[in-house]
Amino acid sequence: MLRVFVGLALPETVREALYRLTGGIPGARWLDPATYHITLRFIGEVDEPEAADLDAELARIAAPLFGLDIGGVGHFGTRTRPSSVWAGVENSAPLAFLKDKVDRAVVAAGQRSDDRRFAPHITLARLRGAPALRVADWERHHNLFRVPTMTVEGFTLFRSHLGHLGADYEPLADYPLTPPTDATVSSSG
């Protein structure tokens, strides 16, 4: 069985900028920058034939390249019991379009639909017993974090390998997006 998800890989420059945010929260398990990504759709356990069906459906997706803005920070969990900290990702129309296409492809490949609200983010650390005030201080200190707009050139089917130190992600297949044509540019402007 393979544990898989569809996501966006991040350029090295973005991963380096995100890594500079780490530190300052006791009880945080900061993730390896090599694992930073944006999840479009978590799928879970599939067998080899199901993975092949996913690959075939994902390969059919046609979507244009687009710019993506990353900035701000926050946490999941409650105000008094935060469970992880993250960097924010703007949920733009092109990102929502790609997410919808991925969701449709995953369902077409025989996987169940996912009705959870899409909250794009990049997980930076998992928290266990982290003092809520220190998390709030970290958020205040980094709330103006921004990186230059990155161009999303494709998306990836990842395999997740769970270990005692966390997860490692192995790209199984990459799916390129297409540059806009002159007709697309002139009709959108």
Structure description:
This protein has 189 residues and is an alpha+beta fold. It has one domain (2-169): Cyclic Phosphodiesterase, Chain: A, CATH 3.90.1140.10. Helix content is 29%, strand content 38%. The protein contains five helices and ten strands. It has helices at residues 12-19, 48-59, 93-108, 132-142, 182-188; strands at 2-9, 28-30, 37-46, 66-68, 70-77, 82-89, 121-127, 150-152, 154-163, 166-176. A four-stranded antiparallel beta sheet has the order 3-1-9-10, with helices on one face. Strands 2-7-6-5 form a four-stranded antiparallel beta sheet, covered by helices on one side. A hairpin with a 4-residue loop joins strand 5 and strand 6. The longest helix is centred in the middle third of the chain and has 16 residues, at 93-108. It is globular. The N and C termini lie far apart (47 Å). The model is unreliable at 184-189 (pLDDT under 50).
What string, H for helix and E for strand, traces the elements in order? EHEEHEEEHEHEEEH
Helical content band: 25-40%
Main sheet: strands, sense, barrel:
4 strands, antiparallel
Count of structural domains: 1
Provide a count of the helices. 5
> CATH architecture, please?
Alpha-Beta Complex
Low-confidence stretches: 184-189
